[in-house]
Fold DegT/DnrJ/EryC1/StrS family aminotransferase.
Amino acid sequence: MIPVTKPFLPPKVEYQEYLNGIWERNWLTNNGPLVNELELQLKEYLNLDHLLFVANGTVALQIAIKALDLSGEIITTPFSYVATTSSIVWEGCKPVYVDIDPKTLCIDASKIEVAITDQTSAILATHVYGIPCDVALIEEIATRHNLKVIYDAAHAFGVKVGGKSIFQYGDISTCSFHATKIFHTIEGGAVICKDPEILKKMAYSRNFGHDGPEKFQGVGINGKNSEFHAAMGLVNLRYLDEIIQKRKELTLFYLKLLSQLNVEFPTQPNSESYNYSYFPMVFQTEERLLESVKLLGEYEVGCRRYFYPSLNHLSYTGGHTPLSDNLSSRILCLPLYHTLSAEEQRMIARLLLRVQNHSKS
Ligand SMILES: Cc1ncc(COP(=O)(O)O)c(C=O)c1O
């Protein structure tokens, strides 16, 4: 079986060293020393002012929406993971979809302005597959209309734009450190911001609103993460550059093997350093995609229609975004993980080319 993704697992002894410390201190959660150490190391690695380690990338979005006091309508993208939309609805706001830019697959910033109403409070955009949104235009529109900006940067760890981490854009960026992400803490995520006041609000939110044992600030949630998860992050961070380099090599090899395949590969027009977090490809038709998924499945190759369906088709949403509808019906992510072998990549490519050649005859 070749799965679509495999989590990175570091050498066990390195994790065990951290476990020994946890046992000695008997401090498992509630803002322990390893959580603090991970936050420090991440801020250093990414050159950020403020970052909080939280339970996952979904609660990160919920905390971000709460911290900015958003209400009414939030302009967002229909081409993202369900958590981007469900967090908006969970926080009592209404997602308003703006269609995507077929080049970047992110929200089409040039279409945002016509969707703004007197109910709009923010823009929540996703850097899809780590491909940056048009951050400059989004910032300009948000400033002109006095809107907040949140970036769902779940896929964008390590990506740089304008010489700095992509997490530095927007009022808040959120990330997921789920086991399938390039940097992971098994489960986990982060909220990142520049404003210390917003940081303070998010720190209260993450811990039930606690301001000391008997005083509370705002409506909180349990968004904390544990020493065990932080330890996994501390070890994995040592291997991150190696993991990204390996994924880059795998991506370039796929591109070579698949050069005769009649598909399009999304590019990264705005990024200076990319993280190779996924290997998406866009088929000419949904029919060809389904034929390919079927044959790959027969040979036990996992792949994923990511993202499908377009989020405007959820039971609790709506909206007319034909480009996202069309793209989500034709896009497929191939297996990509650091231990994927050249032989496995060759087999995947052979199967995909076989579908194409069979369909021609
Ligand atoms: C774009 C996007 N946003 C949010 C999330 C949610 O992150 P988590 O699984 O850590 O809650 C994901 C997870 O896959 C995602 O891909």
Notes: The mean pLDDT is 96.
